[in-house]
Amino acid sequence: MFRNQWPWHPDRVPDGLPLRQSWGWLFAPDGRCLVLIDTEDWLPLLPGGTIEPDLDGADPVASLARRVLEESQVSFADPHYLGYVYDAQGAVYGGTGPCARARFTARITRIGPAAPDPTSGQTLLRLLAPAHQMVEQFDWGEQAHQQADAAERFARDDWGLRLSPEATITQVPLTGVSE
To answer: Which of 49, 70, 155, 175 is most enclosed, with most CB atoms within 10 A?
Structure first.
């Protein structure tokens, strides 16, 4: 369905390489991750987006928190940097050249009622799925498997989450999830 060829780097973004986006592998308490579906183009997406210095102070975690809340009404805690993917062309920015797209993992603390994203105006579908199941389901490729491995390892080892690779993929109710 959709496979990008951005190489995965499990280390810090090199000096001089612009960091343009911040995306997250966000884990629910049951060990599944949040994935969003763009209902106009039917694209599966990790939550996150463009870093906007005037809104986020160029802080990728602040950008991730803002974008996740705007597009999915999800709040998170304990963000942890995993690495970045290298985009040689920056095509989403009009071909501005090489850039990095950071990847984080974090624990979901709240899933509120669905609402339109103020940027796009659309209400994205919210799914919960085991990380590797979503990589396979959406054909994200080997680099996404490497990211999912890193995110799952941290979730298991540092947060003590029990991961169930065979759990079902479910849609988050429009009303959100109450505690």
So the answer is: 155
DSSP reduced 3-state for 31 = coil
pLDDT surpassing 70 at residue 4? no
Contact 99, 88 (CB under 8 A): no
Mean pLDDT computed over 150-155 = 97
Nearest-angstrom CA–CA distance, 163 and 96? 39
Q: Are 128 and 32 in contact (CB under 8 A)?
A: yes
What 3-state class would DSSP assign to 51?
coil
Encoded amino acid at 155, one letter: A
**Two structure tokens written together for 77:** 């805690």
pTM of the model: 0.93
The token pair at 17 is: 């390489």
Which tokens go with 159?
């947060």
The half-sphere exposure of 170 on its side-chain side, counting CA atoms within 13 A, is 12
Instruction: List residues bridging with 85 in a β-sheet.
Output: 8, 101
CB 163 within 8 A of CB 132: no
Whether 71 has a pLDDT exceeding 90, the answer reads yes
Buried b (16+ CB within 10 A) or exposed e, 1-24: eeeeebebbeeebeeeeeebbbbb
How far apart CA 118 and CA 73 sit, in angstroms, is 11
